[in-house]
Amino acid sequence: PAIILNFGSQYVQLIARRIRELGIYSEILPFNTKAEEILKRDPYCVILSGGPASVYEPSAPLPDEDIYHLGIPLLGICYGLQAMVYQLGGVVERAVKQEYGRAKLTVIKDDPLFYGLPKEFDVWMSHADKVVSLPEGFEVLASSENSPNAVIKKGKLYGIQFHPEVAHTTYGREIFHNFLYRVCNAQKNWEVGDLVEEKLQEIRDTVKEGKVICALSGGVDSTVAAVLTHRAIGDRLECIFVDHGLLRKGEVQEVESYFRSLSLPFRKVNASELFLSRLKGVEDPEEKRKIVGRTFIEVFEKEAERSGAEYLLQGTLYPDVVESAGIPGAKVIKTHHNVGGLPEKLGLKLLEPLKELFKDEVRQIGKKLGIPDELLQRHPFPGPGLSIRILGEVKEEDLEILREADYIFIEELKRWGLYNKVWQAFAVLLPIKSVGVMGDVRTYERVVALRAVDSSDGMTADWSRLPYDFLDHVMRRIINEVKGINRVVYDISSKPPATIEWE
Ligand code: XMP
Question: How many CB atoms lie within 10 A of CB 90?
């Protein structure tokens, strides 16, 4: 196998997945796994993941130093590179110019790692520290503007400052391919098996004769989880669709009609008053997320009691787990409500069949299950709904404003044939007012931000280059049609350093 040592990177499962896709079996082990343990597995290579620490901190996680002397190819990524440099006698420091997002990499020296690649290409960086001097015997293979030592090598020890595992690194896949097949001389030993069959069996084995209750949101994840489970255990699955009052315009009807067409057994619970009353006066984003999560669970617990279910099915994906610090060493970025809001005493066991997968893999499973494209191509929508797209306190009148603005944006994206070209798009209502002039009259009203991003898994994202004419048209419609808005802005932040949602 390929061994991946985990230093708490947001991207560790992405590394595993890239390797899986290339036909090599991989295993993720804790960062401090002893070299002899690693050797026992007869690995092709050791990959050191990124991570949130700094090597010069006293408590920094460092690998067993013997791994550098096993004679096995090694690839340190970001923090992994820094750990290797530090342990082998080089110097790592906090960078003056930190580097997040896209950077141009220039290849300085030919190497099997860059076989078939151009001399210059875009890579994705996310680091605060950088390598300022190399350990003895290392040479530089490639540089970026802010990272002269972006790719380094000594024999079969490689270090890369950027993240080849993320989709925004243009030739990331090729770099892994070259590393595995040209540097490590690996042989294909892993077939991406029929995930559907595997998952059906897994669900049957877990649930046995039990009953399952499921939170259907109308999103891709919970729908795929539900259709999959329904196929595995039939009507022992009951789906609950909670209207938390934080859905978009027309969404309740739209989602209900999808469920009917998929013949999923579902029950609608209207709990909007409960959710909105709990959110009253609350401004803090994490607090809002937690309240929505807790209230959800409360509603489900009641439903589960009624239905006699033992299991709660959730469409949790891998990115939800990582960003809620569901893996050791990772930092909390946001509490995603699928994970973070769960109370310890939850009277239900969790069934999360999609937990190690990414959105695009889930879409592939959905396709195999016969779920219509129109549903599978729906943009992701966060569990806390519009509550995290109204910055600050959630008020009913603001929900109305946001619903209208968002509806116009999405409707126009569909009309212009752009909806399926962007990964996710939505409007955000800002808590500030600005001055405008409409029909010779001064206005002092709210601002709507439009957000559209390109991504493949939500882990990294770049802002969509939507046509100016399109943005102009949407701006005009929103300001003319939505009362209370006199300014529209377009968000041009990438992730990192921003996140996709504003809260
Ligand atoms: P961020 O804002 O973390 O979002 O960059 C990444 C993706 O996750 C969605 N998101 C959520 N999905 N529950 C969910 O099911 C949540 O609590 C949640 N928060 C964010 C977000 O819309 C984006 O697609």
Answer: 21
| Structure tokens, 121 | 């290409």
Domain ranges of the chain: 2-183, 195-370, 395-490
Fold of 2-183: Rossmann fold (3.40.50)
What span, in angstroms and rounded, lies between the C-alpha atoms of 213 and 238?
5
Residue 234 carries which DSSP code? G
CA of 131 to the centre of ligand 1 (A): 33
Tens-digit pLDDT profile for residues 418-472: 999 999 999 999 999 999 998 899 999 999 999 999 998 788 999 999 999 999 9
Ligand 1 environment, Cβ below 6 A: 289, 320, 323, 334, 336-338, 380, 382-384, 424, 458, 495, 499-501
Q: Determine the 3-state secondary structure of 353 from DSSP.
A: coil
What integer pLDDT is reported at residue 499 of this predicted model? 97
Note whether 2-183 and 395-490 share their fold.
no
Nearest-CA residue for atom 16 of ligand 1: 336
Which are the catalytic amino acids? 78, 163, 165
Comparing CA positions, the residue from 165, 83, 87 lying closest to residue 129 is 83
Assign a CATH topology to domain 195-370: Rossmann fold (3.40.50)
Write the CA distances from 84 to 57, 59, 142, 472, 503, integer angstroms: 15, 16, 17, 50, 35
Dmax (CA) for the chain in angstroms is 78
Q: What is the CATH number of domain 395-490?
A: 3.30.300.10
The bridge status of strand 485-490 relative to strand 462-463 is unpaired
